Amino acid sequence: MKIGGYSLFPIPGGRFRLDGGAMFGVVPKALWEREHPADEHNRVEIVARSLLVAGEGRLLLVNTGIGQSWAEKERARYAVDPAVRLEDSLAALGYRPEEVTHVLQTHLHFDHAGGAMVERGGRRVPLFPRAEYLVQKRHWQWAQAPSERDRASFRSEDWEGLAGSGQLLLLDGEEEFLPGLHLHLVHGHTPHQQLLRVTDGRSSLLYCSDLVPFLSQVRLPWIMAYDLNPLATLEEKRRLLGRAAAEDWLLFLEHDPLVQTCRVRQGARGLEAVPAAATPAAS
Ligand SMILES: [Zn+2]
User: Fold this and answer.
1) How confident is the model at residue 175 (pLDDT cuts 50, 70, 90)?
2) How far is the CA of 268 from the centre of ligand 1 (A)?
3) C-alpha atoms less than 13 angstroms from C-alpha of 261 in its C-beta half-sphere
4) Rounded distance from Cα 148 to ligand 1 centre (Å)
5) In CATH, which superfamily holds the domain spanning 2-282?
6) How far is the CA of 103 from the centre of ligand 1 (A)?
7) Given 3-state DSSP classes, what are the helix, strand and coil percentages for the chain, each rounded to the nearest 5?
8) pLDDT for residue 71
9) Model confidence over 37-69: pLDDT tens digits?
């Protein structure tokens, strides 16, 4: 699809599984498993779906998937599918890693930044050798010393080498950092998560990252147990999804295995997702 001068492409960056209870917080399993069948370990299927924004002389990638650097024990724990590689997904569209000009990391959890760097000759180097990696400064600081509750979500080897690479650009706050590319900051899931909105002033697409991982989580109380501050997430969803409904934004879902994009509307019982069939511009 196109918005203004940008062409947008979904980029498969991994397939894995996480505990369903952790993914849906206070929502009972009897409700969530209708839409997300659990396996024998109570895990639900998840994808890591990056977004490529091409145009205006730039090639910007939002998030870098779950990556390939997994020891066997962890790979089994999260059922990481080794067959899905970010580089292959880019190559399928005719792009090479050297052509990427910007990598925007919404945040540094392992399923979003796992593919930022790659092993070459015994050391980790940025997978995209010419790209500027964009990270929020205060999220970067948080990731250096997370709490006991969220430290399992960060694997510092995924991204710490960016610091000495000369390719890390730390951003400070919410802004239109390039024409048509706006950042929205949200803090409930993790401090200073940045969401990208691509807009031409009429149409908008919001990369929802972990504010709305699945289509089912358009419902306001469907919030992950991973979130450090679920009441902040609730208000952030109310504000941003309310604006998405009013301005007819397209929402890009990073984690939903079946649905890439949706719109939202105010229904009789609150915000609801508009079925994909009603969004022909989605694919
Ligand atoms: Zn996350």
Assistant:
1) confident
2) 30
3) 24
4) 15
5) Ribonuclease Z/Hydroxyacylglutathione hydrolase-like (3.60.15.10)
6) 17
7) 30, 30, 40
8) 94
9) 999 999 999 999 999 999 999 999 999 999 999
Q: How far is the CA of 89 from the centre of ligand 1 (A)?
A: 22
What's this model's pTM, rounded to 2 decimal places? 0.95
Average pLDDT score over the chain: 95
Closest to 265 in 3D by CA, of 253, 278, 255, 252 = 278
Residue 252, token pair as written in the block: 């890009």
The domain segmentation of the chain, as residue ranges, is: 2-282
Residues around the ion ligand 1 (C-beta < 5 A): 109, 210
CA–CA distance, 238 with 36 (Å, rounded to integer): 23
What's the order of all strands across the beta sheet hosting 2-3? 2-3, 6-19, 43-55, 58-62, 102-104, 132-136, 168-171
Tell me, in angstroms, the distance from the centre of ligand 1 to residue 190's CA: 7
The Å distance, Cα 134 to ligand 1 centre, comes to 16
In one-letter notation, the amino acid at residue 111 is D
Q: How far is ligand 1, taken at its centre, from the CA of residue 109, in Å?
A: 5
Q: Name the E strands within 90-186.
A: 102-104, 117-120, 123-126, 132-136, 168-171, 176-178, 181-186
Amino acid at 108: L
Chain segment 237-279, per-residue pLDDT in tens: 999 999 999 999 999 999 999 999 999 999 988 899 996 654 4
